[in-house]
UniProtKB/TrEMBL annotation:
Pfam families: Glycos_transf_1. The keyword ATP-binding does not apply. It comes from Roseateles puraquae. The keyword Endoplasmic reticulum does not apply. Coiled coil: none annotated. This is Glycosyltransferase. Keywords: Transferase. PANTHER family: GLYCOSYLTRANSFERASE WBBK-RELATED (PTHR46401). Gene3D superfamilies: Glycogen Phosphorylase B. Residues 188-333 form the Glycosyl transferase family domain.
Length: 353
């Protein structure tokens, strides 16, 4: 009897926003026509996903009961000859007959991002997810990651035993370039000096970025900055607005944007500023590079994995970010000119010292 060919089962609950959702869309768009899609997808993404033909989908709701039920249906469906791709970054709770491949795109699961900056509920959820990742890592046959730095991070987290880790970055195809305007027409107006496409999670580092804008304003520079914070980030957005009001900053929160709108934003901006402290991939860096948009980002491994920034900075320092912005704007901060020892002594001996 001929053995039935195995299937690739796509398990992606909780993938409904951000870069993970964009990559999921790209994966579904490229799904081969001769490979039936068997998938567990987040119900919150249902209206925005285009599924290939012959799709068999279990829609998973944002509840503990629905997630647990999905784990049971996955265990029942997976056969020895199949392969399961856990696209949400966590190993399955139940042991499966099929080998498990895990697409790891969340550094939070590796415990590499301090939890102190997260809210109480988020901290508890992340602690649980970190525990699941560690306790059940033996169920993962292979990890797929997007960058060499992420591969090193997964291996360091995994322990002394060598893990099967494959690096294969993928992204949506670059959008076609807009038609060139007639030679006689004026160049398209720039709507924003800088944009930062990111949600409000702590490692995205919005507060340090805004503090840099405060420093720039104190120096007489007020470049415009567009953010994309959602209603889930209402507390952070309110703080950003209060800083903008107090210091006269030109910061606008555009709210969440579709992927198509984000690509259009790149064409209306002077540069992407990206102060994130850690990413598994950094999709906006890829998209800005494809759009020919200059990038200002942290001098970090994950940044250099995917782009060559126009300026870099220490993402933990508002001063460093402000200096990088000044350099990019052609107004670098002059370096200190040391005085002579005699000048120092004169200051010490001055009557009013």
């Amino acid at each position: 009897m001929t053995q039935q060919a195995g299937r690739l089962l796509l398990y992606a609950p909780n993938v409904h926003t951000g870069g993970g959702f964009v990559l999921l869309q790209a994966l579904l768009a490229a799904w081969p026509g001769d490979q039936p899609l068997v998938a567990w997808l987040d119900d919150r993404a249902r209206a925005r996903l285009t599924l290939p033909g012959r799709a068999e989908v279990v829609w998973v709701q944002a509840s503990a009961g629905s997630r647990l039920k999905a784990e049971f249906t996955l265990a029942a469906a997976a056969r020895k000859q199949d392969r399961v791709l856990c696209f949400h970054g966590l190993p399955p709770l139940r042991r499966l007959e099929a080998p498990v491949w895990l697409f790891q795109q969340n550094r939070n699961y590796l415990g590499q991002v301090p939890l102190a900056a997260f809210g109480f509920k988020t901290r508890q959820r992340l602690r649980f997810e970190q525990s699941i990742s560690r306790w059940l890592r033996h169920r993962v046959a292979r990890y797929w990651v997007q960058t060499p730095s992420m591969a090193r991070a997964v291996q360091a987290w995994y322990g002394p035993q060598e893990a099967d880790i494959r690096v294969l970055p993928f992204a949506p195809p670059a959008p076609p370039a807009p038609p060139a305007p007639p030679a006689s027409s004026a160049p398209a107006p720039r709507q924003w000096d800088f944009i930062y496409v990111a949600d409000g999670e702590a490692h995205k580092n919005h507060r340090t970025l805004v503090q840099a804008w405060v420093l720039l304003a104190a120096q007489g520079l007020r470049p415009s900055l567009a953010l994309t914070l959602s209603a889930r980030d209402a507390g952070l957005a309110a703080w950003v607005q209060s800083q903008a009001d107090e210091h006269g900053l030109r910061i606008t929160n555009l709210g969440p944007r579709s992927h198509e709108d984000v690509l259009a934003l790149y064409r209306c901006a002077g540069a992407l500023v990206f102060p994130s402290k850690g990413e598994s991939f950094g999709l906006p860096l890829i998209e800005a590079r494809q759009a020919g948009l200059p990038i200002l980002a942290g001098e970090l491994d994950f940044v250099r994995d995917v782009c060559a920034p126009a300026q870099t900075f220490d993402p933990a320092s508002a001063v460093s970010i402000a200096r990088a912005v000044r350099r990019f704007l052609g107004q670098p901060e002059p370096p200190l000119a040391p005085a002579l020892a005699a000048d120092f002594l004169q200051a010490l001996l001055a009557p009013d010292a």
